[in-house]
Structures are given as C-alpha cells and as structure tokens.
Design a protein that fits this description.
The chain has 161 residues and is of the alpha+beta class. 57% of the residues lie in helices and 17% in strands. It has a 4-stranded antiparallel beta sheet with strand order 1-2-4-3. A hairpin with a 3-residue loop joins strand 3 and strand 4. The longest helix is centred in the N-terminal third of the chain and has 21 residues. It starts with a helix and ends with a helix. The relative contact order is 0.11.
Length: 161
C-alpha cells in the first residue's frame, strides 16, 4: 500500500512539476490522471480530516542554517527506535569501511525502510565534513520533529565558494 501511494504521489508530482515548468493550466487528461489516484486521495483526505500537517521552519544564523521539520502525525515508538537503530548500524558500517554493505543489506524495504532516509542524510553530511550526531536531532512526543543544523562553512566548501 505504501509503495502504491508513493507511486501515485510520484505521478501527481511529475504532472504538477511539468505544468509549473511549462507555466500552463492542467489539461483535461492530466486532471483525469489526478482523479484516478484513489489511494493518494484517500490518504490526503484522512490527513485533512485528522488535521495532520508538515510544518517547515528555516532560520539562517551567523554561522549555521537551521532547518526544522515537524510532522503532526504521531510516530510509533517502535518506528522511532528503528530509525535510530538503522542510523547506528550505518555509522558502524561506515566506521569499519564497509558503508556500502549497509545499503546492500537494507535494500529490501518491506519493513517500510524506516531509517534508510536518515542513513542517506547521514552519509551526505559526513561527506561534507559534518558530524550527523551533532547536526540532526529527532524528537517525538505528540508530534515528530527533526532539526538539522548545517554549518555554513561546510556548505560553502561543498558548493565550491
């Protein structure tokens, strides 16, 4: 089901981005494709009904860019534990020089892949010279919030400034 919704969302975004790039209105055919994305429509309706939101806050400080993303949909403690375990497993593989094995071993997303996105972010941060343990904070109470603190020096180096 998750894969179906993600596929439908990809189709939706593909059309939406093309219309935006071409600066035009939606065609009747594109509107029909949207109507056929039933699973996505059900998920969006449930999110609206339950007042689930994604809140994005960004702040630039003298030496850091702070990005905070809050998801008002609750996360299960089991899922949060899985994210933390996947990140820990990735760090261990990387420390042992076998980072690629982590991704090969976890390519099966039948358990929804919780933590793989964070492991990927961790890899990117490490490649930029940023310690993910200091840069990322994940908290969950009623809402789930991820805070990302990126040092401007590391971003400038990565961008070649």
């Amino acid at each position: 089901m998750v894969r179906e919704v993600l596929n439908e969302e990809a189709r939706h975004l593909s059309i939406k981005n093309r219309v935006y790039r071409e600066q035009r209105e939606y065609t009747d055919e594109e509107k029909e494709v949207f109507r056929k994305l039933r699973n996505l429509q059900k998920i969006r309706a449930a999110m609206k009904r339950n007042d689930f939101k994604i809140i994005l806050r960004m702040e630039a400080r003298d030496d850091t860019v702070c990005i905070e993303v809050t998801n008002t949909a609750p996360i299960l403690s089991h899922d949060l534990s899985r994210i933390r375990e996947k990140r820990r497993e990735n760090w261990q593989c990387r420390a042992q020089g076998r980072e690629y094995e982590f991704f090969v071993d976890n390519i099966d997303t039948s358990e929804s892949g919780f933590g793989l996105g964070y492991a990927t972010i961790d890899c990117h941060l490490l490649n930029m010279g940023i310690d993910p343990e200091n840069a990322i904070d994940i908290t969950s109470d009623r809402d789930t919030t991820v805070r990302l603190n990126l040092p401007l020096d590391a971003l400038r180096k990565k961008c070649g400034e």
